[in-house]
Amino acid sequence: ALHARKPGAVPALGSLPRELLIALRGDRLVAVLASVVAVELAYVLVVALFTPPVDDDSLQYHLGRSALWLQHGGVTTFDPLYDFRLNAFPINGELVYAFFLDLGGGDRFVALTNVLAGVATTGAVVVGAGRLGLTLREALFGGLIAASYPIVALQAPSTLTDLQVAALVTSAVALTLRPARGD
Question: What kind and span of H or E run contains 157?
Fold first, then answer.
């Protein structure tokens, strides 16, 4: 209710690229970290696009569930059931996976959803830190550190759904933060 009465300020996006460049030039640590994250992102993109998913959860549950929905023509439960995870767990990123499976005609582009989720998580950390009153350099440092966490780097080129949930949660938190005492 408080957020609806007095929403947080929205930054001007026109000057953002120039401010980012100034922040990167002004702090060597942030510039080095940005370089590391850029290399990580390039590597993750190559792995996501040119390596098929091979882990058990992806093949037996996440992608299998999406493929079965496409085969059955809708989001449904399956009977007879040989893997309880196909019906027991809530629907998360599998809906997005079904979209990419259908649109791409296979699993080539499915892992891009997690790459985008990693980028969204990084952006949400930067925005959230900025909304709390941190400088752009400090916010960038926090976002780049979050992007370089091993769990983000390992899950970004995969077809697991944890990073998608993290992106939604961090985005929701970032959009509700204000530089107020309670936040």
Answer: none
Nearest to 133 by CA among 172, 87, 181: 181
In the chain, the amino acid numbered 153 is A
Question: What are the pLDDT digits (tens) for 63-116?
Answer: 888 888 899 898 888 887 777 888 888 887 788 889 988 998 888 889 999 999
Q: What are phi and psi for residue 106, nearest 5 degrees?
A: 165, -165
Dist. CA 2–CA 49, nearest whole Å: 43
Q: What is the three-class DSSP state of 12?
A: coil
- How much is the pTM? 0.82
Q: State how far the Cα of 84 lies from the Cα of 134, in Å rounded to an integer.
A: 46
CA distances from 113 to 4, 157, 159 (A): 31, 9, 8
Please say whether the dihedral angle defined by the alpha carbons of residues 23, 29, 31 and 36, taken in this order, is positive or negative.
negative
Distance CA 85, CA 62 (A): 9
Q: Specify whether the CB–CB gap between 92 and 114 falls below 8 A.
A: no
